[in-house]
Amino acid sequence: MDPEEAYRKVLSSLEEHHRWFDSSLPMIASENVTSPAVRRVLTSDFGHRYAEGWVGERVYAGTKYIDRVESLAMELIREIYEVRFADVRPISGVVANLSVYTALTQPGDVVMALPITKGGHISMGPLRGSKGQFIGGTAGAVRGLDVKYIAFDDESMNIDVDRTLRRMEKYRPKLLMLGGSVILFPQPVKELAEAAKSMGAAVNYDAAHVAGLIAGRRFQRPLDEGADVMTFSTHKTFFGPQHGAVITNDEDKFDLIKKANFPGLLSNHHLHAVAALAIAAAEMLAFGEEYAGAVIRNAKALARALHDQGFRVVGEKLGFTESHQVLLDVDELGGGYRCEKLLERANIIVNRNLLPWDIKRGRSFKDPGGLRLGVSELTRLGMGPEEMAQVARFYREVLIDGKKPEEVAKEVSELRKGFRTVKYAFEEGPAYEH
């Protein structure tokens, strides 16, 4: 390929992507949009530099301003979550989890976590699944841990405490991994943490999805409820760059985590993202409570509107959701793959997702029975409950009424014309640059 042609193709693809998303409803629960200030910092010279090690203990020169910014990022994270210690070097939520595995376990140790089919993240997965199929989750494949499953109650869409306590007595885990990738409601951290500590096990809460809601004091606070450590990615409900962090009040565990991150897992740690995280953390400190409240209101409004439009919304008896996520059972509408693709043609971007009962149906991750919806990005663009009702109508038109997705895409584009500016930021500005 001609180099100049390749150059032009990359730029034109980016331009087309921006135009598409500027006329779409981005509703993937693991995504968000950053402010103009965060995006500007991501293109800074920090992205060219190295700063191996801890602040003040670098093995590279030229880091005095990098140290200043990284120190600010840690200070802001500590203040947001009211904790003693924060490490902002993990380059993702998965790496943050791996730092906890590395610090607090040895290969062969038992770790307990939710199965992926019931809300667990792939980083919590074993090397092989219950039927011997290859999974290759971080816990099993990378760290060599013996993963046993936390019990889950399909009715409440939450952890079954009594059954989990019995399993904990049986397996005697070294580490209990709470949190997850599908999380509609606060988990019973206190009950499980007390049991874990009685048997000498550490407790980590993977807050990747709900870190912004916790920061905004609209969700449970795991460390206050007994978790030893909390890991998270910084680009979901926490509206920063793609990066990760670990926080704790336990100095001994924090020393182990620091060493796990460097020299164990990281060389350089994406310094431009650390600077961008500092900006996002300042925005979260200023606007987090307002934003988190708006996110949860929108999620509840969307869930109720979808239910009223005829959809099977998971968690109905419990009010559908207490987080940014809404879970749809679309098995009778052709399954998650079909629905995801139809919505994409209508410029509604979601992801198909396994439901806890999909295995009994014979469904797999390739074509599960569910859709996982998130409202974090729509909320940051300024949408509210009134717009959630319109969004639910678009879903009905595409998936129930059988209207041509391309026709609905025109309605979606019209709605988006009034919501193209990032809110809850020091510098409001366009979400997508053209």
Characterise this structure.
By secondary structure, this protein is α/β, with parallel strands linked by helices. It has two domains: 40-282, 3-Layer(aba) Sandwich (Aspartate Aminotransferase, domain 2), CATH 3.40.640; 288-430, Aspartate Aminotransferase, domain 1 (Alpha-Beta Complex). Helix content is 43%, strand content 13%. The protein has helices at residues 3-21, 36-42, 64-81, 93-104, 138-142, 161-171, 189-198, 211-215, 251-265, 271-308, 336-345, 358-361, 376-380, 385-399, 405-416; strands at 25-26, 85-87, 110-113, 146-149, 152-153, 158-159, 175-179, 202-206, 229-233, 244-248, 312-313, 325-329, 348-349, 351-353, 370-374, 421-422, 429-430. The strands form five sheets. Strands 2-10-9-8-7-3-4 form a seven-stranded mixed β-sheet, sandwiched between helices. The protein has a four-stranded antiparallel β-sheet with strand order 11-12-15-14. The protein has a two-stranded parallel sheet with strand order 1-13. Helix 2 (36-42) packs antiparallel against helix 10. It is globular, with a radius of gyration of 22 Å.
